[in-house]
Amino acid sequence: MSKADLDPMARRLLDLLRADARRTAASLGRELNLSRTAVQDRIARLERDGIIGGYTICEPPADAGHRALASITIEVRPCDPVLRRISSVPGVERVFSLAGDVDAIALVRGVDATAISELADRLSSIEGVGSVTLRTILRER
Predict the structure, then answer these.
(1) pLDDT digits (tens, 9 = 90+) for 15-74
(2) Distance, CA of 74 to CA of 96 (rounded, Å)
(3) All structural domains of the chain
C-alpha cells in the first residue's frame, strides 16, 4: 500500500500521530470518532503495510562533548563485510548502503573537525575501502 492509497481516516490518523505519536488509542479514537480497538487495528494495518515503518528514539550523543558532525561517502568492495567493520568504529553513528556512484555513507561524530578528519583517515585505512569523501555538517534544519 502506498501513501496515495490511504483513506481519509488513515490520513487523519497519521496526521495526529505526526503531531504527537505518544497519544493513546483512546484519545485518538475520541478525536476521530472511532473506538480504541478500531484505532489500534488501523495502526496495526499501517504498520503491516509499511506506512508506519517503526518507532525511533532520538537520543543525544552519549558524550555531549562530541559536537562535530559529518557525513563520509565511501566506496567499498566487498560491501557488506566492510560496512560492518566501518559501523563498529567508534565515532561512526550510522552507516547506510546506497545505490549509485557511491556505495555507502556514514554519519560520524567527534569532538571537533580534527577528530572527524582523523576518523575519516581511519576509515580509509580499512581493507576494502577504496575512497572516502568527508563532508562536514554545519547545522541541522
Answers:
(1) 998 888 889 999 999 999 999 999 999 999 999 998 988 777 666 555 556 678 899 999
(2) 10
(3) 3-48 (1.10.10.10), 68-137 (3.30.70.920)
